[in-house]
Structures are given as C-alpha cells and as structure tokens.
Amino acid sequence: MKGSIISGAIHGFLAVALGAFGAHALKGILDDYSTGIWDTAVQYQMFHASALILVGILMSTKIFGEVRQLKIAAICLNLGIVFFSGSLFILAVTGIGILGAITPIGGVLFLTSWVLIIVTTLKKA
User: Fold this and answer.
1) Tens-digit pLDDT profile for residues 18-64
2) 18 contacts: CB under 8 Å, gap ≥ 6
3) How far apart are CA 48 and CA 82, in angstroms?
4) Which residue of 45, 72, 78, 108 could cross-link 15, Cys pair, CB 3.0 to 4.6 Å?
5) Under 8 Å between Cβ of 81 and 106
C-alpha cells in the first residue's frame, strides 16, 4: 500500500519536473514532433502516477486490502511508466527510432494493470 502511494508520488513529482524541463530547458532544442513526443510521455507518466496512488488507496484494509492482483498492478504501472514514458523521453531527445519498439511494452503493462484493477474490483465489490 505505502509503496504504491510513494512510487506514485515520485512519478508524479518527476512528471511535473520533466514537464517543466521540456517546456523551458528544451524549448528551441526540440522540434514540434519531438515536443509532442515529450508531452505524451509526461501525460502518460502523470496519468499512471495517479493510478499508482489509487492502487495504494485500494490496498487499504478498509477497502480491498493488499490483494495480490493489486500488487501486480502496481508493479505493471511502475514498469509501464519506465518503458512507455522512458522510451519516449529518450526518443524525443535523441531521435533514435528503434526506441519506438520498446514503447508498446509499456503500453501492454499499462493495459495489464488496468485489467487487474477491474478484476480485483469485480471480485471484491
């Protein structure tokens, strides 16, 4: 529970910091296409940082408790952020196109985490 909330807060912090970095420090360095990639990475990081906090709250003993599926969902969310947003951040700065092959791994991890949240809710609610 605590780990999900803390990692969500860390990812949220980093999303704000990287968003500001992209808007200010990389302004004039990145072209429009790369700026769009950077912005997508920041948005998905923040969306899923919020989801991590939600998973931590759901793991409260007053709601669902520390259900195994929620722990796996939290792991998938963390790894999804690293693979999805991380690959996009690097792609935006370097232009290395092969990184586009890594991004979908993060997307699948995100999808998996959402399915696990749905399954847990259906079982527990």
Assistant:
1) 999 999 999 999 999 999 999 999 999 999 999 999 999 999 999 99
2) 38, 41, 42, 45, 89
3) 11
4) 45
5) yes
**C-beta of residue 52 within 8 angstroms of C-beta of residue 29:** no
Q: Which residue has the higher pLDDT, 65 or 7?
A: 7
Let me know if 55 is exposed, middle or buried by CB neighbors in 10 A (0-12, 13-18, 19+).
Answer: buried
Report H helices in the chain: 2-24, 32-58, 68-80, 86-94, 103-124
- With contact defined as beta carbons under 8 Å apart, do 75 and 105 qualify? no
Q: Cβ(114)–Cβ(120) under 8 Å?
A: no
Q: List Cβ neighbours of 80 (8 Å cut-off, separation of 6 or more).
A: 48, 106, 107, 108, 109, 110, 113
116 within 8 A of 72, measured Cβ to Cβ: yes
Largest CA distance in the chain: 50
The residue type at 15: A
- CA 84 – CA 1 distance, rounded (Å): 23
